[in-house]
Design a protein that fits this description.
single chain, about 100 residues, mainly alpha, two-stranded antiparallel sheet, about 10% strand, globular
């Protein structure tokens, strides 16, 4: 890879979010759910640290500065209306969207 080129990422924001949710559920079996805003912030931190360490994005989806903090609109669209989410939730929502042909 040439210096200054951006490699295409095979990882999506949904992969990162699901990984975070699974790790959280394993670490906190009594409280496996996480607030949607906390998930958004952790996804943001993953992207920021990956930029710092690797010099490129971990996932291609954009993160925007909203009044309540950093938000990835594509991720928000999946969890909108849900205060807490847990591992498997995003995969189910993506599967439903795919089945409906809206993904």
């Amino acid at each position: 890879m040439k210096v200054g080129t951006i490699a295409q990422s095979q990882t999506s924001v949904f992969d990162v979010a699901e990984y975070i949710l699974q790790k959280h559920a394993a670490a906190e079996p009594d409280r496996p759910a996480m607030t949607a805003m906390k998930l958004q912030k952790l996804v943001y931190y993953c992207q920021a640290w990956h930029f710092a360490w690797e010099g490129r994005a971990l996932f291609p989806e954009a993160i925007q500065a909203w009044a309540s903090g950093p938000v990835c609109p594509e991720l928000y669209e999946l969890h909108q209306g849900h205060f807490e989410i847990e591992a498997g939730f995003l995969a189910k929502r993506l599967r439903v969207r795919s089945d409906l042909g809206t993904a």
